[in-house]
Design goal:
Length: about 160
């Protein structure tokens, strides 16, 4: 779990835990700024072709070498659906068209940040499959023979939901 911030992002003052809106939150002693902590939005895709699901092998920390569905964090000025399409292109070189929400997952085991992961069903509309600059590998796996080394629990849950149909 990430650490509480110690100093105010607005004025540099000291933060002290105080009760705000029914929870203990870090509040600036000097200017009253409340350092709310919220999960970061992330988005990705579930692409199934001929009973096989598209997965990506991580190239960077955390969890180098482990596998995930194509996904990443939403940029500040980006819609979650744009993020899902962009991340798929960056990691697998496939162009996809989204086909509705597959599911929403809480990602609580990423050491960088807690995240809300929105996964979309999609279909391929172009591109040749190859691992992008931020992936070691990208390939399809039979639904019941996905890698054992999955980087995050949210992706394990999504794969279980996918197998259940
Ligand atoms: Zn302050």
């Amino acid at each position: 779990m990430s650490q509480e911030p110690l100093y105010c992002a607005r004025c540099g003052g000291q933060l002290t835990p105080r009760m705000v809106d029914g929870r203990m939150r870090a509040v600036c002693d000097r200017c009253g700024f409340v350092a709310y902590r919220n999960p970061a939005p992330a988005a990705g895709v579930v692409l199934v072709e001929s009973g096989q699901v598209l997965m990506v092998q991580r190239k960077f920390e955390p969890r180098v070498g482990m596998w995930t569905l194509p996904a990443g964090f939403v940029e500040y000025d980006e819609h979650v659906t744009e993020c899902a399409i962009r991340e798929t292109k960056e990691e697998t070189n496939l162009d996809v068209e989204l086909d509705g929400l597959f599911g929403a997952y809480m990602a609580m085991d990423d050491p960088r940040v807690r995240a809300v992961l929105l996964l979309y069903r999609c279909r391929r509309i172009g591109g040749e499959l190859r691992a992008g600059d931020d992936a070691l590998d990208a390939r399809f796996f039979p639904l019941h023979r996905t890698p054992k080394e999955i980087a995050f629990k949210a992706h394990v849950q999504a794969l279980e939901d996918l197998r259940r149909g």
